[in-house]
Amino acid sequence: MTAVPRMESTAGRLARLGFADGARAERLLDELGPEAVGDYDLLEAIVAAADPDLALTSLNRLAERDPSVLGALRGDAGLRERLLAVFGVSAALGEHVVRHPESWKVLQGEQAVRRPPQEELCADLLLAVGADPEAAEPVAVPPPGAGAFSTPTLSALRVAYRNHLLRVAARDATGSATLGEVTAELSDLAAAALEAGLAVARAEHGTGVRLAVIGMGKCGARELNYISDVDVIFVAEPREGEDETEALRLATKLAQGMMRACSTATAEGSLWEVDAALRPEGRSGPLVRTLASHLTYYRRWAKTWEFQALLKARPVAGDMELGQAYVDEVNEMVWEAAGRENFVEDVQAMRRRVESHLREGGNGTAAERQLKLGPGGLRDIEFAVQLLQLVHGRHDPLLRRRATLPALAALSRGGYVGRDDARALAEAYTFLRQVEHLLQLHRLRRTHVVPEDTADLRRIGRALGMPIDPVGEFTTRWRRHAMEVRRLHEKLFYRPLLQAVARLPGEEARLSTAAAKARLEALGYTDPEGALRHIATLTSGVSRRAAIQRTLLPVMLGWFADAPDPDAGLLGFRQVSDKLGATPWYLRLLRDETAVASRMARLLGTSRYVTGLLMHAPEAVAMLGSDAELEVRPKAALATEAAAAVSRHEGDAETAVAAVRALRRRELFRTAVADLVGRVDIEQVGQALAELNDVTIQAALDAAIGKVVLERRAPLPTRFTVIAMGRLGGFEPSYGSDADVMFVHEPVEGAAEKEAADAAHAVANELRRLLALPATDPPLLIDPDLRPEGRQGPLVRTLASYAAYYARWSSPWESQALLRARVSAGDPGLGERFLAVIDPLRYPEDGIDDAAVREIRRLKARMEAERLPRGADPALHTKLGRGGLSDVEWVAQLLQLRHAHACPALRTTRTLAALRAAVAAGLLSAADEPVLAEAWRFASRIRDAIMLVRGRASDSIPVDLRERGMVAQALGYPPDGSEDFVDDYRRATRRARQVVERVFYGDDTRR
Fold first, then answer.
1. Is this model's pTM higher than 0.70 or not?
2. Do the domains 115-334 and 606-842 sit in the same CATH topology, yes or no?
3. Closest CA relative to residue 205, chosen from 294, 139, 266, 154
4. If you placed Cys at 238, which of 247, 409, 894, 986 could pair as Cys (CB 3.0 to 4.6 Å)?
C-alpha cells in the first residue's frame, strides 16, 4: 500500500518562514481576513521584517483600529515595506501607531521618502503646540482653559514628534537612508522639539530676553541617537535697555520651562531628558549665563574636558544669532586647548575615570557588552578622533568637524590616520551605531548594552541583513569589530607618523615634520624632535630589520607613551636594537611575541636601571617572553654557575670575577623585571638580592684566594669567612645597597700569626678590589665599617680577637648591629663559630638594662636629628623619616635585645620575621605588627622604585613632580596618582610612628 505524503500545515509553513510561533501567526493572519494568508506580497513583507511575530502583532492591532490600512498596504508596496519594517524592529513605534491609527499615513507617498529640511520640522512641531512658526519668538497657544504645560499641549508635541520619528525609522529600517542622514534628521528633529518646548515656556513666562540654546554632544554634532539625553548649554543677553539680572532670571525660567516641556511624562510618554550638566561649573553653576560670563569662565577656570566637549557646540534653538556668536567665540579657545599644559594627560585621565566608573558600576560581563563605553566600543573611536582633531586642528582647519565620521574622513585625507585604518574604524562605528539604534528603537529606551536574550539578538541580526544565522553572524561581526576598534585605537596615532618620518612607501599624503612633532607631543613625548630622529634611524632603509621595525614601532610608540617616560623608552629601544638588531631571534621574538614587545616597551619607559642592565646584557630580552623565566633562581643553582665561571678562568681572577658579575647583572635584570611586573613582593626581592650578593661575594672570594695563593706560591695559612651585616645580613638589601660585611680569619694549625694575618688582609683587599673594578655592571661595594673600632680598626681580625674585643669593649650599638650578623661566604665552620661568640652579646641572658635602653633611644634620637640630610622632608625620607625603615627596624631590634635569649623565635636577622615572632610571643600587639610591617614594606618598595626609575639610589621621595609621578607609576599608581601615592605613604608612616612612640620610646617592649 503506497503511503500518502502528509501535507504541511499552515502553522508549520509559517514557522518555516520565520515566525517563532506558527500557530499564533496563523490565528493572527486569519483575524486579518481570509485572504491574508494567501496574500503573498503582504506575507512576504511580514516575513522580511526583523521580527515577523512582532510585526504581525502590531499590524493585527492596527487593523482592528483602522481596517483601511490593509487595503492601503496591498496597493502600495512602498508603504507595505516601510510600515512592516518599522513594526518588525520597534514595539514602541508600533504601539504609537496603534494608539494613533491615522499616523501610519505619514509613511505614504513622497513625504515618506524625502528628508524634510530643518525649517519644516521646526514649523510642524511649533504648530503642534499652537505657535506661529513665522514669529520672531514663537509662543505656544494652549487649548482654551488649559495652561501652557497642560497635558493636551505636551501630548500634541509628543505625537507630532513621534510621527516624524516614525518616518525616520522607516527610512532607516528599509535602508533608504544612511547612518549620517538618520542621525542628522534625529538631531534636527530634537532641535525642533527644543524650539517648540521654548515656545511652551514663553507661553507660561513671557518674552523679553534673548535666549540661545547651544546643542552639545551628539545633538551639537548632528549625530543623535533615537533616544539620548540632549545635552545643551544656555546663553542669554538682556535686550537693549533691560536689566541684566532680571533678564537672566527670566531666561532661567524659560530654560527650565523648555526642559520641563521635553522631559515631563504624559500619557504619550516623554521625549527625552534635556541635560545642561556640561555648562560652566556643571550642575553647581547657574543654568543660564551671559556670553561674557561664559567667556570669562572658559578663559580663567575651564578644564581640558570642557574644551573637548565644546568641540561639538552648535546653536540649535532660540536666538540663533546669539548662539552663533557664542560658538564663534568659544571655537577660538577650543582649537587652542591642545596647547594647554598637560592637555593630553588631562584627556587620558578623564578617559580612565570613565572606564573606572564603568567597571565599578557593573560586573565585567556588562562592561564587555557595552557598545558605548566597553572595550572596542564607540567611545574608543570617538575619543581617539577627538584627541587627534584637537591636537592637529590648531594647524589644519580641515579637521574642524563636529561629527565623528566626517572628522575621521578628514583625518584620513590629511594623512593623520591611514586610509585602511580609517575605513575599518568607519565601518565599525557605523555598525555599532546601527546596533545601538536597533536596541533603542525596540522600546524607545536609552540603552547601550547588547542583550543576551536569543530573541533580541535574532531581531538585531535580521534587521542588519543576516537572515541565515542572525544570532551567530551578528555576534561574530560585533566581536570582530570590537577587537579591531580596540587594536586600532592603540595604533591610531602612529602609522601616518611613521609614513612621514621613515619615508614609508604608500599613496597617502605624508605628514610634515611639524605635524609629526605635534603628534608625538600629543602622545606625551617631551622631546619630539629626538623621538623623530630615533624613529627615522630605526625604520630607514630597505633591510629586513627596517621592515620589521616599521611593523613594530607603530604599536610600540603607544606602549612607550603609556609608560612614565616615553622618551627614555624609545631611546632605550633604539640602543638595545642597535646592539641586537642584526641578531635573527631578536626581531623575530618581538614581531611574533606581542607580550615581549609590550613588556619591553613598558620596562624601558619605566626604569633606567633596567634599561642600563639590558644595554649591557641585551640577550636578556629573551626572559620577557615567559613569566616562568622571571622566577627567581635558587641560590644553589646560582652558586654552581658562579663556581663554574671561576673554575673556567682559574689563574685569571679579574676575568673570573667579570664573568660572575655578568651573571649577577643578568639575575639583577630578572629580579628587577619580576619586581616591576608584580611577580615578587618586597621580601622576596630582598632575599633574592641578598642571596645573589652572597653568591657573588663567594665567587669573588674564591678568585681572590686563588690569586693570593698563586702570588704567595703557598697554601693559604688561614681560614677566612665573610660575615654579612646590616641589610645584607637581614636579607633586606635594595638594588643600590652596599654589602655591609665583617672579615674573620683563623690561622690554620702551625701557621704563624703574622703570616696568617698578612694573608687574610691580602685576601680581603683583593676581594674588595675585584668587586670594585670599573665595569658596566652595577657595583657591589664592600663596606666593612661595622667592624670593631670602625674605620680605625683592623680590616680583618681573628676569631679570638673578636671574642676579646666584644668581651671588653662592646657597646650597646654594636650588640644591636650584630643582630643582623650571619655567614655570607667563606669557611662555614669558622662562620658558625663566630656566630657562637656573638650570640651572648646580641641575645643577652638577662636582656639589656635600662641604661642600655636609654643609650639606644638617645642614639636613635640623635640619628633622627643629625643624620637626616639638610633640607630633607622628614615625612618623605624612607630611611630616617618618621615611621620609616629605621623606626620599624629599631623597634624590632629592641625587642630582640630584650627578649631573644628567652624567645628563640626572635633570633632572626629579618625585621618582619622578628615582628611576627614578637606577636606570637605576646611581646607586641597583634594590631601593631601590621601597622609597622605596612610602613616598612612601603618604604622599602619606594627605595627600590626610586633606584629602578632613576638608576641611582636615594632615600627621599623625589621633590620633582615628574620624577615623583614616575616612581608612583612604578609602584602601580595611575599616571595621575602621585598625590595619592604620597598621601598613602604619609598615612602609613604616620600610623607607624604612633606605634613607635608607644613601643620604642615607651615601655611596651618590656612585656
1. no
2. yes
3. 139
4. 247
